[in-house]
Amino acid sequence: MRISEFLPVFAALIAGLILSLGAAAIGATVIENTSTKAVDNQLAMRGYDWVDVQGDGLQIVLTGTAPDEQTQLAAQRAAGHVVDPSRVINVMNVVQQEAIPAPRFSIEILRNDSGISLIGLVPSGWDREGFIEALKRASGTGSVADLLEQADYPVPENWGDATEFGRTAIGLLPRSKISIAADGITLTALADSKEQKVTFERALIRALPDTLPVAIDVAAPRPVITPFTVRFIIDANGPRFDACVAETPSGHARILAAAKAAGVENPTCTIGLGSPTAQWASAVETGMRALQDLGQGSITYSDGDVSLIAAEGTSASLFDRVVGELEADLPATFTLHSSLPQAETEAEEETRPEFIVIRSPEGQTQLRGRIADERSQAATEALAKAAFGSASVYSAMRVEDDLPDGWSLRAMAAIEALAQLNRGSATMTEDLVTVRGETGNENARAEIASLLSAKLGDGEQFTIDVTYVRKLDPVLNLPTPQECVDRANQRIAANKIVFDPGSTELNEAANETLDQIAEALKECEEVEMEIGAHSDSQGGEVMNLNLSTQRANSVLDGLLMRRVAGVKFTAQGYGESQPIADNDTEEGREANRRIEFKLLNAEAPETATAQDEAQQDTSDAPQGENAATDTDGATDGAEGADTASEDGETEE
């Protein structure tokens, strides 16, 4: 075959090959672009905008940075739904993950009569065994169930403070649950009484760490109250409770709501056990509304007995209407006694017999006024000596035969009521018992109301004017003013406040001492205290006086900055006028340069008021044939006092 014949065939083959390759290239490009666009759209629809899709022939290459491995694989699977998964090439990166954070370490400490249980997660580097041994020593029990898990992480900040407080608290609280963590502590516990609750709380507050928050919830059981008493009064001073108890939280809320509606500001009421009926709150609310209708008076609930006493001058028709409606509205469990007192004439008031008990701040108790007979006199004196101490009772009662029935029992009730107070008086007449004074018992008013309502009987009148004084509260155990001064001087004796030569500025050591003094005085209340600054005799007298005055003021400013709220300070400079050592020696001069605290306005012993003296004169003045006898008795008493004084001097 000639070459000329072969060339056209060969050219045709070459042209076909070129056309085939071109068509294949075009087809591959079309497929690549179509696949790339389809995959890109699919990933965008799925929210994988961070993926970069590129075509490489028939392959789809995925690049980009995935937030995590799971998302990376999900994007690859999404692309595989559009094209053959074998064509998808995954070259995506994953964001580098941070180190796994440490878990929250915590301990639940449970303590009851069976022992102590520990549950939680603790760091492996913590002294777990030492903590358990410390718990055993603090609680006095060898039974500690250790259910703690460990994790190999560093001990968190504040973990030591948290566990130390937990150890202290668990040793104090026999029935408690303490949740300890590095970011806070939660404590719940049970106390046997209100007094123990206060003791626990005070001890826990003293042990609180400064580095983390602590929530404390100490609960005391509900008291059993007998008789179950509410006494509500409206008089010239406004509405108020002398005593208030409720049987349930819902009843408590109902009574307080009624009190607020009547105008009582910040009413309080105790939830207790011993209610005579489930309708207690409803009955009390009904009686309070009735008293509001009367305008003034008192209503007393003592178990099932209700005494409504109107104020003098109340309209008889209004009184009858209110009493009738109250009788109809009260539940059948309650019995109503009502009284509308009539005003006495001036002559009747002057001749009305009285019995008076007075208790002084020093603890001395005087019995004055009338008593029915010698037997009642002896019984009354015995009760007073049992209540106040035999050595502190002075009796100046006078026997009178024609006293009203029940006089002696009412006198004994007055003594028992006064025994609830630290100081005050109880005055009793035929139809009224009045108790006045101060007490350190927050519940004294309610306890007196409960006692008198039970002792005096239904429908009897009594008034209570009692003030709660925090510094008299034995549960709080507040220091006396002199003890506060002693505390401050003890801190100075241990760490003397020393100023730099010629300076009036507090240095670091002096500030640390002031911190200790402020801490020692934080429980003091209503104390007036002088800060006295003294100098040695070196330098001029006027200069030393000015320097000591400025230093006293510097100490005063330092304590005021530390907010010692219960103490009123006065700064006084004395210069060199009151040395306590020889100024001719260095040791003496050092002793004379000093800061001292002194009590100001110390309470003088209180004496009987003019009114009390007048009452004594009118009630106890000897009359008629008894004058000589009473005078002799007074003389004997004076002689006895003189004899006791002489005996005391002889013994010394």
Secondary structure layout:
Elements: H1 3-45, E1 52-56, E2 59-63, E3 65-66, H2 69-80, E4 88-90, E5 93-94, E6 106-112, E7 115-123, H3 128-139, E8 144-151, H4 159-172, E9 176-181, E10 184-190, H5 194-206, E11 214-219, E12 229-235, E13 238-243, E14 245-246, H6 249-262, E15 270-271, H7 280-294, E16 297-302, E17 305-310, H8 316-329, E18 335-339, H9 346-351, E19 355-359, E20 365-371, H10 374-388, E21 393-399, H11 407-418, E22 423-428, E23 432-439, H12 444-456, E24 461-468, H13 481-494, H14 508-520, E25 527-534, H15 541-561, E26 567-575, H16 586-592, E27 594-599, H17 610-620, H18 626-651
Parallel strand pairs: 2-4, 3-5, 7-8, 10-11, 14-15, 17-18, 20-21, 23-24, 25-26
Antiparallel strand pairs: 1-2, 6-7, 6-9, 9-10, 12-13, 12-16, 16-17, 19-20, 19-22, 22-23, 25-27
Helix pairs in contact: 1-2, 3-4, 6-7, 7-8, 10-11, 11-12, 13-14
